[in-house]
Fold this sequence. Notes:
The structure is a single chain. The two termini are 28 Å apart. Mean pLDDT is 91; it is low at 211-217. The protein folds into 2 domains: 2-189, no CATH class; 223-288, Immunoglobulin-like, CATH 2.60.40. The strands form 3 sheets. The protein has a 4-stranded antiparallel beta sheet with strand order 6-5-8-9, with no helix packed on it. The chain has a 3-stranded antiparallel beta sheet with strand order 3-4-7, with no helix packed on it. It contains 10 helices and 9 strands. α3 (38-46) links the parallel β1 (28-32) and β2 (53-57). The protein is globular, with a radius of gyration of 21 Å. The protein is α+β, with helices and mostly antiparallel strands.
Amino acid sequence: MAEYLDNDEDSIPDNQAVVDEMVSNGAFMAMFSTDGSNDQQEFFDNYNGNDAGQDLYGDETHPSGSSQSNGFDATLEEVLHLITSAGYSGVYPSVFGEQQGTSLCNAMDIARGGQFTSVPNNYPTEAWYHYDDQTCDYGCMATEYIYWSLTSILGAQNYSGRCNDISVEWELCTKTQIEATDTSIYKLLTDPQYKFATILPDGIYCPTKTATGVKPIKRLMGKIYPNPSNGIIKIDFPQKIDHISVYDSLGKLVYHSLRIEQPLDLSFLNSGLYHITFDDIVFDRLVISK
């Protein structure tokens, strides 16, 4: 979420009005292990609020990134749903509102081949967005539409096998296809006044300044490779490094050493996403794939 809202990672929200709107709506993410799990049931049995919430499940979350073998990382979808529904739609109601007649929904009507307040039996052949979930109303369709559009522009849908897998619902899986075919939504989402993300979030948020925007954070120059790797990596840095730490995706320290060995053997770690710090400065993420 931080990367969607502060895409240039300067510690300042790219669109403060959107963040303020989300706060005013009580926007929150609720994450559970699986859909229908006991923890999910307990939460909804005890939650009586009217805040804007979005759920996400552990079994659909892939910190190491989307792939044909793992599937799509649903974090990229569910977090964006919260931002657009609880943020953009309220700040720009005539543009990103999720009801008939807004700029977003007018573009969606073109993409669906007509204005359908409910799912039609068959979409027109010229449609490239043909969502068929009967539980999804018109506003829900708009939420899904902006997700498909922005993530395709950012490159999230363009990996091996993905375009074919999603074609039953969405046909434009690349930026080039959106720009050429869905010109209305492309113009909206790339309009700089709205400050949508231009770089796909990767789960590594490393702001270049402190929260005050005054004190620069030290940056490290160098590289680790190969990445992804089987756990055996080489470290190439021009400056002296005193110690290295490796953390798993939950923030748990899994490796620490005052010696920088070459190559560094982390093959004892399981496949997954890890964060590497040198001298307590976050440097990069490492994907271990076996």
